[in-house]
Amino acid sequence: MSAExxxxxxxxxxxxxxxxxxxxGVECLNQSGSNTIVNALKQGYREDEGLNLVSDADEQLxxxxxxxxxxxxxxxxxxxxxxxxxxxxxxxxNKEHMGFSNVNDYPPSDTAVLSExxxxxxxxxxKYVKFxxxxxxxxxxxxxxxxxxxxxxxxxxxYGTTVETTDMKGLKKIEDH
Length: 177
What we know:
Radius of gyration: 17 Å
Helix content: 10-25%
Low-confidence stretches: 1-8, 171-177
Number of strands: 10
Strand content: 25-35%
Mean pLDDT: 90
Order of helices and strands: HEEHEEEEHEEEEH
Distance between the termini: 58 Å
């Protein structure tokens, strides 16, 4: 296997976290009406190179992804076209109800500047210590490669593992009996 094809595979010990996304809570601010987050995030859609998430009023996108259980986020892959693909991506762990008006009020858990290899699918390894008990992740795409008016995202893949949690309330009730 060549180094290039190996770079787009799932990182060792990590899984695609798509099955753990709480789809009812996924939001994307500033998405074009017909080119929504589903195109970049959902299985089947994100593999179709003709479908993209496209920004609307300007180049910025703010994506909120909740999970149906606590996860550990290891890395993220964001594919996009060479010119209109995302450039500066800020990730926030467990920050809810963020908007463009307050996104700069919080320090990001991690920031990535995407390279040409990243836009082709090479995952960005995150500061793992900052993404240990993640219930949601907010992805702020600040700009694109050539500072154009619109940003296009072909695919977003989150890699990590689930956190095995114990229901402490359940244990307490058993002790009470």
